[in-house]
Amino acid sequence: MAAQCDNLSGYLQQSDQGSNSERSTDSPIPGSEEDLSGPHPLPDPEWTEERFRVDRKKLEVMLLAATEGRVNGGEDFFQKIMDDTQTQIAWPSKLKIGAKSKKDPHIKVCGKRENVREAKDRIMSVLDTKSNRVTLKMDVSHTEHSHVIGKGGNNIKRVMEETGCHIHFPDSNRNNQAEKSNQVSIAGQPGGVE
């Protein structure tokens, strides 16, 4: 289902899974084609909307700050940008904090083309996704996995915290030695992965 900008609150009414960035000049705002109740004003050719992904963890931190009543929460952040750029911004205000989903949510900005570009730049300067994330796959003998992971996962947790990377070991519960995989994957920013 398509996301709709709510002109009153700027909240995302519904979200869908889409590409990283979409631009549309035939926005249902203003003068929706679905409204057949009379003559429509010609849409402003300068009017546009853009949908783009933002970093889930950064948005969660911002929304959590808002629920705790701290300044610079999600509502304040987006409202200031809307006021400064004269745009409407829709965001997933009810994003479940700490959800298992790793999918980055979408933000939608509606307004005049130049204002939308400025609003997007300001949002992305704070909530930019990990676009330069890399994954390194390397072979580590499955007999060494438990030593690298450490007791209770302490070694690997420490390494992941220090580097900001996610390290994945294949399933070690296989009974047949031939089925066990040696491939370990490390995902994160290039500096951390090295």
UniProtKB/TrEMBL annotation:
Matching InterPro entries: BICC1_KH-I_rpt1, BICC1_KH-I_rpt2, KH_dom, KH_dom_type_1, KH_dom_type_1_sf
Q: Where are the bilayer-spanning segments? A: none
Record keywords: Repeat, RNA-binding
Name-wise, this protein is Bicaudal C homolog 1
Question: Start and end of every K Homology domain?
Answer: 46-128, 132-189
Species per Swiss-Prot/TrEMBL record: Nothobranchius kuhntae (Beira killifish)
Quote the Gene3D superfamilies the UniProt record gives.
K Homology domain, type 1
Q: Which SMART domains match?
A: KH
Q: Is rRNA-binding there in the keyword field?
A: no
User: What SUPFAM superfamilies does the record point to?
Assistant: Eukaryotic type KH-domain (KH-domain type I)
Q: Which residue stretches belong to region Disordered?
A: 1-51, 168-194
Ranges of compositional bias, category Polar residues? 1-22, 172-186
On whether Lipid metabolism is a keyword of this UniProt record, the answer is: no
- Gene Ontology terms for molecular function: RNA binding
Q: What gene is this protein a product of?
A: BICC1
Please tell me one Gene Ontology term that the record gives under cellular component: cytoplasm
List, alphabetically, the CDD domains matched. Answer: KH-I_BICC1_rpt1 (cd22420), KH-I_BICC1_rpt2 (cd22421)
